[in-house]
Amino acid sequence: MLPYGRQSISEEDIEAVTAVLRGDWLTTGPAVTAFENAISELSGGHRAVSCTSGTAALHIAYAALGVGPGDEVITTPMTFVATASCAAILGARVAFADIDYATGLIDPSAVSDVLTERSKVISAVDYAGQSADYPALQSLADQVGAKTLADAAHSVGGSAYGRPVGDLADVTTMSFFPTKNLTTGEGGAVVCRDADVGRRAHEFHFIGLVRDPSRFEITDEGPWHQEVHEYGVNYRLTDLGAALGLSQLRRLAEFKRRRAEITARYNAAFAGVDGLRTPVQRAGVDPMWHLYPLRVLGGRRREIFERMRAAGIGVQVNYIPVYWHPVFARQGYQRGLCPNAERFYAEELSLPLYPDLTDGDADRVIETLLQLVG
User: Which top-rank group of organisms is this from (predicted)?
Assistant: First the structure.
């Protein structure tokens, strides 16, 4: 089965990890610091906190922004559930704003429709690898004193308006799962433009530990002393994962180039084909294409999905509208809430896209799909 996504591991990656195994630090060591510094440099120089997954990054980000009971978090339904659930588990009410049907990205006008004085965070998702309209979203957030969050699980390595992903919203979360744009095995990161939010993010992911003597409330202990002022969790990335991530970062530009090449190959093959719609790229955005979200029209998505799989091509669907999940449906969220997202979902089919996909593999995908829709 040709997968829809796959990690690209080189001999240099393997050597980087084995070097850590031969060293003194397996976690909380120099590789983690170096990786966080590299992510910061990639993201406009802001503080980066590494962690164990993209989901952990979202949990950390919402906690660092002070999200809690009585707050509202506005987000898109066209995402993996964690973008919404990590706000909900902190006690916030999630308000879903519809998407732009052309791109799958959250629609600022729909955000405006659900914005209230209780809105704490506007969380956009860089669906398929291109950045949302953060200038418009920031303007809306500023109206009510909210913050913007970029769920950049798909877009690490991209940019918009000449600014890198990580410098487009108040807080940015990243995922380094194997199918993402680079991998640490499992892993993620939170990038914070505000230093105090960055400190809170670091402490939350480090069990809440405070190690700065100037902030101690217990002042008569020895040099071993550390204390907890707010609850936290252990979301620390290991040096093993960080070493892999550092090695992967050296190839990020090549990963981006190859993903763009495959995307262009698909676009050329499917442009103008009856029953198919190719992805739409926003003006001013330089995407890091993580998904190729083809649209299958005429109610044939499931049929084409099953027949592609039967032909050995591992297509995927990204994503079921979040509020369809029973955990949200049981809270009263109803189908029909975001009609553009539901229509987009009914048509979306992700084709295989990853750096090691060969031209021959891509041509096999193209030829099979064209035969099925012809």
Answer: Bacteria
Give buried/exposed letters for 204-227 (b at 16+ CB in 10 A, else e): bbbebebeeeeeeeeeeeeeeeee
What is the Cα–Cα distance from 151 to 174, expressed in whole angstroms? 7
DSSP per position, 36-103:
HHHHHHHTTS-EEEEES-HHHHHHHHHHHTT--TT-EEEE-SSS-THHHHHHHTTTPEEEE-PBPTTT
Parts of the chain with a pLDDT under 50: none
Alpha helices in the chain (DSSP H): 11-21, 30-42, 54-64, 82-88, 108-114, 134-144, 195-205, 239-249, 252-270, 301-310, 326-329, 339-347, 359-373
Rounded distance between C-alpha atoms, residue 292 and residue 160, angstroms: 19
Residue 243 vs residues 14, 19, 240, 369: alpha-carbon distances, Å:
9, 9, 5, 39
Q: For the domain made up of 11-249, give the CATH fold.
A: Aspartate Aminotransferase; domain 2 (3.40.640)
The bridge status of strand 72-75 relative to strand 93-96 is: parallel
Residue 241 to residue 128: CA distance in whole angstroms: 24
- Cis amide linkage into residue 354, ω under 30° from 0: no
Predicted confidence at residue 115, as pLDDT, reads 98
- Look up residue 79 and give its amino acid: T
Contacts of residue 356, defined as CB under 8 A and 6 or more positions apart, other chains included, come to: 6, 8
Q: Where are the domains of the chain?
A: 11-249, 252-373
Q: Against a cut of 0.90, is the pTM above it?
A: yes
Strands 276-277 and 292-296: antiparallel
252-373 domain in CATH 3.90.1150.10? yes
Q: In the prediction, which pLDDT does 374 show?
A: 85
CA 51 to chain centre: 13
Beta strand 348-351 with 292-296: parallel, antiparallel or unpaired? Answer: antiparallel
Name the nearest CA neighbour of 332 among 96, 117, 132, 163. 96
Look at the alpha carbons of 181, 184, 186, 187 in this order and tell me if their dihedral is positive or negative: negative
How confident is the model over 201-213, as pLDDT tens digits? 999 999 999 999 9
Q: Is 360 within 8 Å of 313 (Cβ atoms)? A: no
Asked whether the beta carbons of 143 and 74 are under 8 A apart, the reply is no
SS3 content of the chain, % helix, strand, coil (to 5): 40, 15, 45
pLDDT in tens, 343-367: 999 999 999 999 999 999 999 999 9
